[in-house]
Specification:
The protein is built from 3 helices and 5 strands, in the order ββαββααβ. The chain is α+β, with helices and mostly antiparallel strands and about 120 residues long.
């Protein structure tokens, strides 16, 4: 177990996050799946979030992330889902399927939360 440190704290906050596509449609494959993975990595890097493990399946995304204490998990998920639905993913999905309407990303679930304090 590796602890992360700031000037006044030592922490290990890990979240297991899962979200699905709208109506569990299997759209996260091929170029769309690669683009979602790229956007998630960029978003996590910009927030100093480490991706411990992750998987982009056809209709859902699994992430185990290590997060700074000042970032709410809801903010992290909002940024990742917002970028993936607003940017190229939604546009490519709509063009390929010939569909206009809402973005393809659906609900998310925080599966587990792991907090430890060494003190």
């Amino acid at each position: 177990m590796s602890y992360r440190k700031t000037a006044h704290s030592v922490y290990d906050l890990k979240y297991h996050i899962v979200w699905i596509t709208k109506y569990r449609k299997p759209i996260l494959q091929g170029a769309i799946g690669l683009r979602v993975r790229e956007l998630i990595r960029q978003t996590c890097a910009s927030l100093d979030v480490y991706i411990e493990k992750g998987h982009v399946a056809k209709e859902h995304v699994h992430l185990l992330v290590s997060v700074l204490p000042d970032i709410a998990v809801s903010e992290l998920v909002q940024r990742m889902k917002g970028r993936s639905s607003r940017l190229d993913v939604a546009r490519v999905w709509r063009i390929e399927k010939g569909i206009l309407g809402q973005a393809p990303m659906g609900t998310w679930v925080l599966c587990s939360e792991h907090r430890e304090r060494d003190g």
